[in-house]
Amino acid sequence: MSDPRFSKDQISLFIARALETAGMPPNDAGTVADLMAEADLNGADGHGIFRLQSYIRRIQEGGINLFPNIHVEQEKSGMALVNGDNAQGHLVMKYCAERAIQKAKKSGVAWVGAHHSNHAGPAKLYAKLPLAHDMIGLYVAVGNANHLPPWGGTAMLLSTNPIAVAVPALEEPAVVLDMATTVAAYGKVKTAAQQGQEMPVGWMITKDGEPLVDPTRADEGFLLPIGGPKGSGLSLVFGLLAGVLNGAAFGRDVVDFNADFQTATNTGQFIVAIDIAAFGDANSFKRRVDDAIRAIKSSPTLPGFEEVLLPGENSFRKREDYQVNGIPLSNALHEGLDNLAENLGIKKISY
Fold first, then answer.
1. Could you tell me the mean pLDDT of each successive run of 10 residues in the chain, 351 residues long?
2. What one-character-per-residue DSSP string does 95-151 give?
3. What sign has the CA pseudo-torsion 27, 256, 243, 184?
4. How many domains does the chain have?
5. pTM score > 0.90 for this model?
6. Same domain? 121 vs 170
7. How many of the other CB atoms lie within 10 Å of CB of 211?
8. CA separation for the pair 122, 125 (Å, rounded)
9. Helical pair 331-344 and 186-194, crossing angle rounded to 10 deg
10. What is the DSSP letter of 48?
Protein backbone atom coordinates (compact mmCIF):
# COMPACT_ATOMS: atom_id res chain seq x y z
CA MET A 1 0.00 0.00 0.00
CA SER A 2 1.46 3.34 -1.08
CA ASP A 3 1.80 6.21 1.35
CA PRO A 4 -1.03 8.77 1.25
CA ARG A 5 -0.18 12.16 -0.22
CA PHE A 6 -1.33 15.61 0.84
CA SER A 7 -0.89 19.11 -0.50
CA LYS A 8 1.27 21.62 1.33
CA ASP A 9 -1.88 23.61 2.17
CA GLN A 10 -3.56 20.55 3.71
CA ILE A 11 -0.51 19.85 5.86
CA SER A 12 -0.09 23.49 6.86
CA LEU A 13 -3.75 23.88 7.82
CA PHE A 14 -3.68 20.75 9.96
CA ILE A 15 -0.49 21.83 11.75
CA ALA A 16 -1.88 25.32 12.39
CA ARG A 17 -5.14 23.87 13.72
CA ALA A 18 -3.25 21.57 16.09
CA LEU A 19 -0.88 24.26 17.37
CA GLU A 20 -3.68 26.76 17.86
CA THR A 21 -5.76 24.19 19.73
CA ALA A 22 -2.74 23.53 21.96
CA GLY A 23 -2.68 27.22 22.85
CA MET A 24 -0.37 28.91 20.36
CA PRO A 25 -1.66 32.30 19.15
CA PRO A 26 -3.19 32.03 15.64
CA ASN A 27 -0.61 34.19 13.84
CA ASP A 28 2.30 32.30 15.37
CA ALA A 29 0.63 28.96 14.70
CA GLY A 30 0.22 29.93 11.05
CA THR A 31 3.86 30.99 10.75
CA VAL A 32 5.17 27.78 12.31
CA ALA A 33 2.77 25.65 10.26
CA ASP A 34 3.86 27.24 6.99
CA LEU A 35 7.55 26.68 7.77
CA MET A 36 6.95 23.07 8.84
CA ALA A 37 4.94 22.35 5.69
CA GLU A 38 7.68 24.00 3.63
CA ALA A 39 10.14 21.57 5.18
CA ASP A 40 7.95 18.66 4.04
CA LEU A 41 7.62 20.16 0.57
CA ASN A 42 11.41 20.20 0.32
CA GLY A 43 11.67 16.54 1.27
CA ALA A 44 12.92 17.03 4.85
CA ASP A 45 10.52 14.37 6.09
CA GLY A 46 12.17 14.08 9.51
CA HIS A 47 11.68 17.77 10.27
CA GLY A 48 8.21 18.77 9.09
CA ILE A 49 4.86 17.44 10.26
CA PHE A 50 6.76 14.41 11.59
CA ARG A 51 7.77 16.63 14.54
CA LEU A 52 4.27 17.91 15.31
CA GLN A 53 3.41 15.37 18.00
CA SER A 54 6.57 16.12 19.98
CA TYR A 55 6.05 19.87 19.59
CA ILE A 56 2.50 19.55 20.91
CA ARG A 57 3.69 17.48 23.86
CA ARG A 58 6.35 20.08 24.68
CA ILE A 59 3.69 22.80 24.60
CA GLN A 60 1.33 20.78 26.80
CA GLU A 61 4.04 20.04 29.37
CA GLY A 62 5.15 23.67 29.57
CA GLY A 63 8.44 23.41 27.69
CA ILE A 64 7.54 26.16 25.19
CA ASN A 65 6.70 29.80 25.90
CA LEU A 66 3.54 30.50 23.89
CA PHE A 67 3.66 34.25 24.47
CA PRO A 68 7.35 35.10 23.98
CA ASN A 69 9.09 38.42 23.70
CA ILE A 70 11.59 37.64 20.94
CA HIS A 71 13.98 40.58 20.95
CA VAL A 72 17.46 41.86 20.14
CA GLU A 73 19.74 41.95 23.18
CA GLN A 74 22.95 43.21 21.59
CA GLU A 75 23.50 44.79 18.21
CA LYS A 76 26.02 46.42 15.90
CA SER A 77 25.80 47.28 12.21
CA GLY A 78 26.67 43.79 10.97
CA MET A 79 25.44 41.61 13.83
CA ALA A 80 22.75 41.02 16.42
CA LEU A 81 22.20 38.69 19.33
CA VAL A 82 18.58 37.62 19.76
CA ASN A 83 16.88 36.34 22.90
CA GLY A 84 14.26 33.85 21.73
CA ASP A 85 12.52 33.82 25.14
CA ASN A 86 11.97 30.06 24.83
CA ALA A 87 9.67 30.48 21.83
CA GLN A 88 9.06 27.80 19.23
CA GLY A 89 12.31 27.74 17.25
CA HIS A 90 10.68 28.47 13.90
CA LEU A 91 9.50 31.85 15.19
CA VAL A 92 12.93 32.71 16.55
CA MET A 93 14.81 31.79 13.39
CA LYS A 94 12.38 33.54 11.08
CA TYR A 95 12.90 36.65 13.20
CA CYS A 96 16.68 36.19 13.03
CA ALA A 97 16.69 35.60 9.26
CA GLU A 98 14.61 38.69 8.61
CA ARG A 99 16.94 40.72 10.85
CA ALA A 100 20.02 39.38 9.06
CA ILE A 101 18.59 40.19 5.63
CA GLN A 102 17.65 43.71 6.72
CA LYS A 103 21.12 44.34 8.12
CA ALA A 104 22.94 42.80 5.14
CA LYS A 105 21.23 45.26 2.81
CA LYS A 106 23.11 48.02 4.67
CA SER A 107 26.32 46.33 5.83
CA GLY A 108 26.84 43.77 3.04
CA VAL A 109 27.15 40.88 5.48
CA ALA A 110 25.19 40.26 8.69
CA TRP A 111 25.49 37.60 11.40
CA VAL A 112 22.55 37.10 13.75
CA GLY A 113 22.77 34.61 16.60
CA ALA A 114 20.12 33.37 19.01
CA HIS A 115 19.89 31.86 22.46
CA HIS A 116 16.91 30.51 24.35
CA SER A 117 15.50 29.23 21.07
CA ASN A 118 14.17 25.74 20.34
CA HIS A 119 14.21 23.11 17.60
CA ALA A 120 13.41 24.90 14.34
CA GLY A 121 13.27 22.18 11.68
CA PRO A 122 15.77 21.60 8.87
CA ALA A 123 18.76 23.92 8.49
CA LYS A 124 18.09 24.67 4.82
CA LEU A 125 14.73 26.20 5.70
CA TYR A 126 16.52 29.31 6.97
CA ALA A 127 19.61 29.30 4.76
CA LYS A 128 17.25 29.61 1.77
CA LEU A 129 15.36 32.66 3.06
CA PRO A 130 18.04 35.17 1.90
CA LEU A 131 17.90 33.76 -1.67
CA ALA A 132 14.84 35.87 -2.50
CA HIS A 133 16.93 38.97 -1.81
CA ASP A 134 19.88 37.96 -4.02
CA MET A 135 21.81 36.92 -0.94
CA ILE A 136 23.73 33.87 0.16
CA GLY A 137 22.45 32.28 3.35
CA LEU A 138 24.36 30.27 5.96
CA TYR A 139 22.79 28.64 9.01
CA VAL A 140 24.26 26.61 11.89
CA ALA A 141 22.56 25.17 14.98
CA VAL A 142 23.42 23.21 18.08
CA GLY A 143 21.49 19.94 17.92
CA ASN A 144 18.73 19.43 20.47
CA ALA A 145 20.26 16.29 21.97
CA ASN A 146 23.79 14.97 22.30
CA HIS A 147 24.24 11.82 20.22
CA LEU A 148 27.93 12.16 19.45
CA PRO A 149 31.00 11.80 21.69
CA PRO A 150 34.24 13.64 20.95
CA TRP A 151 36.50 11.63 18.65
CA GLY A 152 38.03 8.80 20.64
CA GLY A 153 35.76 9.30 23.65
CA THR A 154 32.43 7.90 24.82
CA ALA A 155 30.87 10.81 26.76
CA MET A 156 27.92 12.34 24.88
CA LEU A 157 29.14 15.94 24.66
CA LEU A 158 28.46 16.81 21.01
CA SER A 159 25.49 16.72 18.67
CA THR A 160 24.64 16.57 14.98
CA ASN A 161 25.17 20.36 14.83
CA PRO A 162 23.97 20.93 11.24
CA ILE A 163 25.07 23.50 8.70
CA ALA A 164 23.24 24.73 5.61
CA VAL A 165 24.51 27.05 2.89
CA ALA A 166 22.30 28.33 0.05
CA VAL A 167 23.83 29.97 -3.04
CA PRO A 168 21.53 31.43 -5.73
CA ALA A 169 21.88 30.78 -9.45
CA LEU A 170 20.31 32.64 -12.36
CA GLU A 171 18.59 29.89 -14.38
CA GLU A 172 19.60 26.74 -12.52
CA PRO A 173 18.21 25.72 -9.11
CA ALA A 174 20.10 27.19 -6.18
CA VAL A 175 22.94 25.17 -4.69
CA VAL A 176 21.75 24.23 -1.20
CA LEU A 177 24.06 22.25 1.06
CA ASP A 178 22.28 20.92 4.16
CA MET A 179 24.15 18.43 6.29
CA ALA A 180 24.66 17.22 9.79
CA THR A 181 28.18 16.72 11.11
CA THR A 182 27.20 13.09 11.67
CA VAL A 183 26.75 10.44 8.97
CA ALA A 184 22.98 10.66 9.50
CA ALA A 185 20.81 13.24 11.22
CA TYR A 186 19.01 11.93 14.30
CA GLY A 187 15.69 12.75 12.64
CA LYS A 188 16.43 9.95 10.16
CA VAL A 189 16.91 7.57 13.08
CA LYS A 190 13.53 8.58 14.52
CA THR A 191 11.89 8.23 11.10
CA ALA A 192 13.33 4.73 10.67
CA ALA A 193 12.07 3.74 14.12
CA GLN A 194 8.55 4.97 13.37
CA GLN A 195 8.43 3.09 10.07
CA GLY A 196 9.89 -0.13 11.50
CA GLN A 197 12.99 0.00 9.31
CA GLU A 198 16.58 -0.90 10.06
CA MET A 199 19.33 1.70 9.83
CA PRO A 200 22.20 1.16 7.40
CA VAL A 201 25.47 -0.04 8.88
CA GLY A 202 27.63 3.02 9.49
CA TRP A 203 25.02 5.36 10.97
CA MET A 204 25.47 4.32 14.59
CA ILE A 205 27.61 2.07 16.75
CA THR A 206 27.21 0.75 20.28
CA LYS A 207 29.45 1.95 23.09
CA ASP A 208 31.42 -1.27 22.51
CA GLY A 209 32.08 -0.23 18.92
CA GLU A 210 29.69 -2.71 17.30
CA PRO A 211 27.37 -1.68 14.43
CA LEU A 212 23.89 -0.63 15.62
CA VAL A 213 21.10 -1.02 13.04
CA ASP A 214 17.97 -1.18 15.23
CA PRO A 215 16.73 2.44 15.60
CA THR A 216 14.61 1.52 18.63
CA ARG A 217 17.90 0.80 20.46
CA ALA A 218 19.46 4.14 19.54
CA ASP A 219 19.92 5.04 23.22
CA GLU A 220 22.39 2.16 23.49
CA GLY A 221 24.88 3.80 21.13
CA PHE A 222 25.80 6.96 19.32
CA LEU A 223 25.94 8.47 15.86
CA LEU A 224 29.16 8.42 13.87
CA PRO A 225 30.70 11.69 12.66
CA ILE A 226 31.35 12.33 8.98
CA GLY A 227 35.01 11.85 8.15
CA GLY A 228 35.96 10.57 11.59
CA PRO A 229 37.83 13.24 13.56
CA LYS A 230 37.01 15.87 10.93
CA GLY A 231 33.26 15.58 11.54
CA SER A 232 33.83 15.56 15.28
CA GLY A 233 35.90 18.73 14.92
CA LEU A 234 33.21 20.42 12.86
CA SER A 235 30.58 19.52 15.45
CA LEU A 236 32.75 21.05 18.16
CA VAL A 237 33.45 24.28 16.28
CA PHE A 238 29.82 24.72 15.19
CA GLY A 239 28.75 24.16 18.78
CA LEU A 240 31.14 26.85 19.99
CA LEU A 241 29.87 29.33 17.38
CA ALA A 242 26.13 28.63 17.68
CA GLY A 243 26.11 27.70 21.35
CA VAL A 244 28.88 29.19 23.45
CA LEU A 245 29.21 32.46 21.48
CA ASN A 246 25.46 33.07 21.82
CA GLY A 247 25.26 32.16 25.49
CA ALA A 248 23.24 29.07 24.54
CA ALA A 249 23.49 25.45 25.67
CA PHE A 250 26.49 23.36 24.63
CA GLY A 251 28.09 20.13 25.82
CA ARG A 252 26.78 18.95 29.17
CA ASP A 253 24.18 21.77 29.20
CA VAL A 254 22.29 20.49 26.14
CA VAL A 255 18.79 19.27 27.02
CA ASP A 256 17.59 16.14 25.20
CA PHE A 257 14.27 17.35 23.83
CA ASN A 258 13.41 13.78 22.82
CA ALA A 259 13.20 12.79 26.49
CA ASP A 260 12.59 16.02 28.45
CA PHE A 261 9.52 18.00 27.38
CA GLN A 262 9.49 20.48 30.27
CA THR A 263 12.96 22.00 30.61
CA ALA A 264 13.83 25.00 28.45
CA THR A 265 16.42 23.82 25.92
CA ASN A 266 18.21 27.17 25.42
CA THR A 267 18.99 26.13 21.86
CA GLY A 268 21.58 28.20 20.01
CA GLN A 269 21.55 28.98 16.30
CA PHE A 270 22.95 31.61 13.97
CA ILE A 271 22.28 32.79 10.46
CA VAL A 272 24.51 34.78 8.14
CA ALA A 273 23.19 36.74 5.16
CA ILE A 274 25.65 37.86 2.46
CA ASP A 275 24.49 40.49 -0.01
CA ILE A 276 25.96 39.56 -3.40
CA ALA A 277 25.62 43.15 -4.61
CA ALA A 278 28.25 44.16 -2.05
CA PHE A 279 30.76 42.10 -4.06
CA GLY A 280 29.60 43.01 -7.58
CA ASP A 281 26.66 42.60 -9.94
CA ALA A 282 24.28 39.96 -8.59
CA ASN A 283 23.18 38.66 -11.99
CA SER A 284 26.77 38.28 -13.15
CA PHE A 285 27.51 36.23 -10.05
CA LYS A 286 24.46 34.04 -10.53
CA ARG A 287 25.33 33.53 -14.19
CA ARG A 288 28.79 32.30 -13.15
CA VAL A 289 27.12 29.95 -10.66
CA ASP A 290 25.03 28.62 -13.57
CA ASP A 291 28.25 28.00 -15.51
CA ALA A 292 29.80 26.17 -12.56
CA ILE A 293 26.70 24.02 -12.09
CA ARG A 294 26.57 23.06 -15.76
CA ALA A 295 30.27 22.20 -15.82
CA ILE A 296 29.87 19.96 -12.80
CA LYS A 297 26.72 18.32 -14.21
CA SER A 298 28.55 17.56 -17.48
CA SER A 299 31.31 15.63 -15.72
CA PRO A 300 31.76 12.00 -16.87
CA THR A 301 30.51 9.62 -14.20
CA LEU A 302 32.13 6.80 -12.31
CA PRO A 303 30.80 3.25 -12.78
CA GLY A 304 27.58 2.86 -10.82
CA PHE A 305 26.62 6.54 -11.06
CA GLU A 306 23.99 7.72 -13.53
CA GLU A 307 24.71 11.42 -13.02
CA VAL A 308 26.52 13.94 -10.86
CA LEU A 309 24.17 15.46 -8.31
CA LEU A 310 24.73 18.83 -6.69
CA PRO A 311 23.80 19.71 -3.11
CA GLY A 312 20.07 20.38 -2.95
CA GLU A 313 19.26 18.79 -6.29
CA ASN A 314 17.36 15.84 -4.84
CA SER A 315 15.40 18.22 -2.63
CA PHE A 316 14.54 20.38 -5.66
CA ARG A 317 13.26 17.34 -7.57
CA LYS A 318 11.16 16.21 -4.64
CA ARG A 319 9.68 19.68 -4.39
CA GLU A 320 8.68 19.62 -8.06
CA ASP A 321 7.06 16.19 -7.61
CA TYR A 322 5.31 17.09 -4.36
CA GLN A 323 3.89 20.33 -5.75
CA VAL A 324 2.12 18.32 -8.45
CA ASN A 325 1.41 14.98 -6.77
CA GLY A 326 1.30 15.86 -3.08
CA ILE A 327 3.62 15.21 -0.15
CA PRO A 328 3.78 11.56 0.95
CA LEU A 329 3.24 10.82 4.64
CA SER A 330 4.03 7.32 5.82
CA ASN A 331 1.09 5.23 7.01
CA ALA A 332 2.63 5.10 10.48
CA LEU A 333 2.90 8.89 10.60
CA HIS A 334 -0.63 9.31 9.25
CA GLU A 335 -1.97 7.02 11.95
CA GLY A 336 -0.12 9.01 14.59
CA LEU A 337 -1.57 12.27 13.27
CA ASP A 338 -5.08 10.78 13.39
CA ASN A 339 -4.51 9.88 17.04
CA LEU A 340 -3.23 13.39 17.71
CA ALA A 341 -6.34 14.86 16.10
CA GLU A 342 -8.57 12.72 18.29
CA ASN A 343 -6.69 13.72 21.42
CA LEU A 344 -6.93 17.41 20.53
CA GLY A 345 -10.54 17.17 19.37
CA ILE A 346 -9.80 18.57 15.91
CA LYS A 347 -10.58 17.48 12.37
CA LYS A 348 -8.21 14.83 11.01
CA ILE A 349 -5.93 15.65 8.12
CA SER A 350 -7.90 14.84 4.97
CA TYR A 351 -6.91 13.49 1.59
1. 90 98 98 98 93 97 98 98 98 98 98 98 97 98 94 92 98 97 88 88 89 90 93 97 98 94 97 98 98 98 96 97 96 94 94 60
2. HHHHHHHHHHHHHSEEEEEEEEE---S-THHHHTGGGGGTEEEEEEE--SS--BPPT
3. negative
4. 2
5. yes
6. yes
7. 14
8. 6
9. 90
10. S
